[in-house]
């Protein structure tokens, strides 16, 4: 017997819905309660089950169609003995309109995930939508729902597992745009270093709760000391910049606030406090940003740091750094002082928990309360980004204040 399956009353004032997924094709055999299609309205997603067992003869709707209550969805060649007619019931139970409604599973939209590679993956429209946005392939998720369906909890568990492992949940898919329609263009592929750095920065930004503290430091004393050592460095062909002095002041601050010189363990449950001071220095190269590390920087003089910075920077730009020279950092400094800008928000370089960004120093009029006069002062703006799981705002502000005082102390640079 051929029977048409009509869209039942969806209740709650819903008189129509969109077809988001069709799970059967003509010729398929279905059993009672098998899900034949999924609808999505502005209020909920709904799975429509088969009320009879049989063979699908025709499908009257397509994905994306809007269907109204009472509209035919499919036709089924009903198997003998599967209909109500072959199993008479007491008259008072024949209407059973409530039973039909209870067979429609009405759910709040679950996290959506679309199966990119397999039509055999089952999930609600809500689950499919989120997975599509995060570029997650549903075939990689272990399904725990009825009849192998991927539930909201399955998707949440998959995301949490990836985050705990330090991996990215999925790459962000950008729409393909033909930019040449508006004018002439050129395409330039990213270098390998740019791709690796980009992935690491994106992962760090997504997995670490960043807080950035902005401050400025009077570097008048530092500058006088630099001018003195600059002359000595010229005799040895060593270029003396501000950066070695900043490194010294940072190390002094790290010793005062050891929480900035630590890392979280792989479980995120313990702090690993380091008794050594290896400082990473961000270097801009023709192929991308790299961060070589100065090992045991606390044991080196200003001239020693200057010489090592010259060597690392040169070899970074020519691609001659060794893999070990990128490892073991405790704290990173990114200096844009030679370029410009007032402040920026540097991204933490994991597994470190903090990074300092240095901007261009300028002369500013500063009022001296003690002498009641305005004094030209050489000020350096800087930013401190830190991992809020490890460092709170009070300690962050204390660190920047201590650093600002450290650059005013000549003994810092000895």
Describe the structure.
The protein has three domains: about 1-110, RNA polymerase II/Efflux pump adaptor protein, barrel-sandwich hybrid domain (OB fold (Dihydrolipoamide Acetyltransferase, E2P), Beta Barrel), CATH 2.40.50; about 115-165, Dihydrolipoamide Transferase; about 200-414, Chloramphenicol Acetyltransferase. It is elongated. The strands form six sheets. Strands 13, 16, 19, 20, 21, 22 and 23 form a seven-stranded mixed β-sheet that branches. α6 (about 245-255) packs across α7 and α6 packs across α8. The chain has helices at about 95-100, 125-135, 150-165, 190-205, 220-235, 245-255, 300-315, 395-405, and strands spanning about 1-5, 15-20, 30, 35-40, 45-50, 55-60, 65-70, 70-80, 105, 110-115, 120-125, 150, 210-220, 260-265, 270-275, 280, 285, 290, 295, 330-335, 355-360, 360-370, 375-385. About 25% of the residues lie in helices and about 25% in strands. By secondary structure, it is of the alpha+beta class. It contains eight helices and 23 strands.
Core attributes:
five-stranded antiparallel sheet, Dihydrolipoamide Transferase, OB fold (Dihydrolipoamide Acetyltransferase, E2P), alpha+beta, 414 residues, seven-stranded mixed sheet, Chloramphenicol Acetyltransferase
Describe the secondary structure blueprint for this structure.
Layout: E1 2-6, E2 16-22, E3 29-30, E4 35-40, E5 45-49, E6 54-59, E7 66-68, E8 72-78, H1 97-102, E9 105-107, E10 112-113, E11 122-123, H2 125-134, E12 149-150, H3 152-164, H4 192-207, E13 210-218, H5 220-235, H6 243-256, E14 262-264, E15 271-273, E16 279-281, E17 283-285, E18 288-290, E19 293-294, H7 302-317, E20 331-335, E21 354-358, E22 362-368, E23 373-387, H8 393-406
Parallel strand pairs: 11-12, 16-20, 20-21
Antiparallel strand pairs: 1-8, 2-4, 2-7, 3-6, 4-5, 5-9, 6-8, 13-23, 14-15, 16-19, 17-18, 21-23, 22-23
């Amino acid at each position: 017997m051929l029977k048409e399956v009509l869209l039942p009353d969806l209740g709650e004032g819903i008189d129509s819905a969109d077809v988001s997924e069709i799970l059967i094709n003509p010729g398929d055999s279905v059993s009672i309660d098998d899900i034949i299609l999924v609808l999505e309205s502005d209020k909920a997603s709904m799975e429509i089950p088969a009320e009879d067992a049989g063979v699908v003869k025709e499908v009257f709707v397509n994905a994306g169609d809007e269907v109204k209550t009472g509209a035919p969805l499919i036709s089924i060649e009903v198997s003998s003995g599967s209909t109500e007619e072959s199993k008479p019931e007491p008259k008072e139970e024949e209407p059973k309109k409530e039973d039909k409604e209870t067979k429609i599973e009405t759910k709040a939209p679950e996290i959506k995930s679309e199966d990119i590679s397999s039509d055999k993956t089952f999930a609600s429209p809500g689950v499919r939508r989120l997975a599509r946005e995060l570029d997650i392939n549903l075939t990689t998720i272990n399904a725990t729902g009825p009849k192998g369906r991927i539930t909201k909890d399955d998707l949440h568990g998959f995301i949490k597992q990836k985050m705990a492992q330090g991996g990215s949940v999925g790459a962000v898919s950008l729409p393909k745009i033909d930019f040449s329609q508006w004018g002439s263009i050129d395409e330039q592929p990213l270098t390998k270093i740019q791709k690796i750095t980009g992935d690491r920065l994106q992962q760090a930004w997504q997995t670490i709760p960043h807080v950035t503290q902005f401050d400025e430091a009077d570097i008048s004393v530092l500058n006088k000391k630099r001018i003195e050592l600059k002359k000595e460095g010229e005799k040895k062909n060593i270029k003396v910049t501000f950066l070695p002095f900043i490194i010294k002041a940072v190390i002094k601050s790290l010793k005062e606030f050891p929480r900035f010189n630590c890392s979280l363990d792989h479980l995120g449950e313990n702090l690993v406090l380091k008794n050594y001071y290896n400082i990473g220095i961000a270097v801009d190269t023709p192929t991308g940003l790299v961060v070589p590390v100065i090992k045991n920087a606390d044991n080196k003089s200003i001239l020693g740091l200057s010489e090592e910075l010259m060597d690392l920077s040169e070899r970074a730009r020519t691609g001659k750094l060794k893999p070990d020279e990128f490892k073991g950092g405790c704290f990173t400094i990114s200096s844009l002082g030679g370029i410009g800008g007032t402040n920026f928000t540097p991204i933490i370089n994991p597994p470190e928990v903090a990074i300092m960004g240095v901007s261009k120093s300028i002369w500013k009029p500063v009022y001296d309360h003690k002498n009641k006069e305005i004094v030209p002062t050489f000020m350096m703006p800087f930013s401190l980004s830190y991992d809020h799981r490890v460092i709170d705002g009070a300690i962050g502000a204390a660190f920047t204040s201590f650093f600002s005082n450290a650059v005013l102390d000549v003994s810092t640079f000895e």
